[in-house]
Amino acid sequence: MVPIERRTATPGAEGWEWPQGLNPVLRRVLARRPIASPAELELKLKHLVPVGQFGALARAVDLLLAHRDERIVIVGDFDADGATSAALGVLTLRDLGFADVRFFIPDRFALGYGLSPEAVDAVAAEAPRLIVTVDNGISSVAGVAAARARGIDVLVTDHHLPPAVLPDANAIVNPNLADSDFPGKQLAGVGVLFYVLAAVGKATGSPTAVSQYLDLVALGTVADLVHLDRLNRILVAEGIARIRAGSCRPGIRALCEVAGVRASDATAETLGFHVAPRLNAAGRLDDMTIGVRCLLADSDAEAARLAATLHDLNRDRRALEARMQGEALELLESATELTREALPSVICLYSDGWHEGLVGLIASKIKERYHRPTFAFAPAEGGMLKGSGRSIAGFHLRDALAEVDARHPGLIVRYGGHAMAAGLTLPAAGFERLQGALEDVGAAKLQADALAARVLTDGELAPEEMTLVVARALRDFGPWGQGFPEPSFDGCFELVDQRLLKDAHLKMTLRPLASRATVNAIAFNRGAADWAAGTQLRVVYRLSVNDYQATSKVQLIVSHVDTVS
Predict the structure, then answer these.
(1) Which CATH architecture has domain 47-312?
(2) What is the β-pairing status of strands 505-512 and 153-157?
(3) Which CATH architecture is the domain 336-451 placed in?
């Protein structure tokens, strides 16, 4: 097992005055999260950073209002953040009285990412007077120029890190611009657009118009794995509250249903691990237009039909991903002995049989398994490779690509992203050069301790704390996610019995060493082990509620397990 470390409490947390009735286990967990005081646990909309503090919004509002009676096309991205952003823009602007609002999602396989000149050609067929980019556009210098040359105004709304040269758009809203002092640096694309639309609503006398679609904001924010600072946690918490209350888009209800998730029990985890993948499947394998149409559907019947299509695409995605993951492991096996010492500091993998829509998922799985920044590549049109990377703490992917680009001009055709995720395009002939260049950057920036995997937990739970009351308190408090991790615990148990479920998941009955009572546990995607009954195990787990067959029981969701040495 990888080394286990326990989170330490924030200095001074022992003196905090917690809200009355807060579960003691939850208090211990929250004292180990990045908050300055219990006041930051207040997650109502009134605690959002005011729209007026986002200076870039004024120009964007004027531009939108100038085109209120003209055709506007919202150009989204082909992931869940881009899809929810497109739907949010269409719905809110129509509600605010804009005359003609449409959306366009570029085909990732034919038009590439963002507002490319080719995408502008396709959008121009609809004769818009204004293009609004959502979750993209900050790197679309050529595309924006192409639109402006046609007499089409452009509003860029994005959250990705800006390049050295910005597009010549009529207005740009991005909290990560160098001259922006807005504190919402961690907003997803849908969060940036939320602020733009809130400002438009304020200017037109409907300041809360966009708030009815916070379910879309929550889904896009969680799906994009942005850091859940207080601002994002407010947006997600309010959106989840709407989903639980049934006040959400029919498409989100339908996606929950096909995913086997009760909307009334929705959490950030269920959105991120069950709903978002079905929405993302359209952009990975087909056309995200299907996903946006599902989110825009007004009737339950239409939403259910489109959600079923997304569910089928997700099933295909899982099968293809499983094959690619197995091939990725074979590639690593053929190159190394699969010891951590033998692996390069940055892993780069390529297969000519891989699907470009899934390379990000493969990079993520390999990164999680071997705790190395990882890039995976697939062939694309014109002799190019499309790659996607996922990183670990301490290695900024976009900055690494910028460094490679500076050292090897012309090697990378285009790149973009942020610290933990990035994408790039390069000629197929340049793969080995890129591989070596990234390894050089990784070797210089990543020390041995950064490459040593570790598991952080919130310590042990006493047997009497492993209850439904505690499990529900932890589940319902959220949102938990990136930068505000869901509570996990570690402890030593005796194995009572084990069996394999669906040939894929290890189901166990465990007994805490300090108790006679037993508890159910499950380790997903782990095969049977050769442990005999009575073996002592060190387990890292999350305390969860299993509602199988209408009977609620405590269950441990095991992330790491090994014998006690």
Answers:
(1) Alpha-Beta Complex (3.90)
(2) unpaired
(3) Roll (3.10)
Would you say 411 and 404 are in contact if contact means Cβ atoms under 8 Å apart?
yes
**Correct CATH for 4-41+455-563 of 3.40.50.2300, 2.40.50.460, 3.90.1010.10, 2.30.180.10:** 2.40.50.460
Cis peptide before 50 (omega within 30 of 0): no
Contact 276, 72 (CB under 8 A): no
Written in H, E and C, the secondary structure of 116-180 is CHHHHHHHHCCCCCEEEEECCCCCCHHHHHHHHHCCCEEEEECCCCCCCCCCCCCEEECCCCCCC
Contact criterion met (CB below 8 Å) for 218 and 267: no
- Write the CB contacts of 1 (distance below 8 Å, at least 6 apart in sequence): 455, 538, 540, 560, 561, 562
User: Bridge partners of 154?
Assistant: 131
Give me the tens of pLDDT residue by residue for the chain, a chain 565 residues long: 678 999 999 998 988 999 999 999 999 999 999 999 999 999 999 999 999 999 999 999 999 999 999 999 999 998 999 999 999 999 999 999 999 999 999 988 788 788 999 999 999 999 999 999 999 999 999 999 999 999 999 999 999 989 889 999 999 999 999 999 999 999 999 999 999 999 999 999 999 999 999 999 999 999 998 999 999 999 999 999 999 999 999 999 999 999 999 999 999 999 999 999 999 999 999 899 999 999 999 999 999 999 999 999 999 999 999 999 999 999 988 766 555 567 899 999 999 999 999 999 999 999 998 999 999 999 998 999 999 999 998 899 999 999 999 999 999 999 988 888 899 999 999 999 999 999 999 999 998 888 888 899 999 999 999 999 999 999 989 899 999 999 999 999 999 999 998 878 999 999 999 899 999 999 998 888 889 999 999 999 999 998 877 789 999 999 999 999 7
In angstroms, rounded to a whole number, what is the distance separating the alpha carbons of residues 463 and 368?
Answer: 30
CB 215 within 8 A of CB 296: no
Reported as type and span, the H/E element at residue 491 is strand 489-501
Q: In terms of residues, how long is the chain?
A: 565
Give the residue ranges of DSSP H helices in 336-467: 359-370, 397-407, 431-445, 448-451
Question: Do 57 and 207 form a contact (C-beta atoms < 8 A)?
Answer: no
CA torsion angle for 390, 395, 398, 403 (degrees, to 10)? -130
158 burial via Cβ count (<10 Å: 0-12, 13-18, 19+)? buried
For residue 208, what is the DSSP state? T
Name the phi and psi angles at 368, rounded to 5: -65, -35
**Residue ranges covered by each domain of the chain:** 4-41+455-563, 47-312, 336-451
Task: List all residues 6 or more positions away from 205 whose beta carbon is below 8 Å from its beta carbon.
Answer: none
Cα gap 488→495, rounded to integer Å: 20
Q: How far apart are CA 234 and CA 270, in angstroms?
A: 17
Contacts of 11 (CB under 8 A, 6+ apart): none
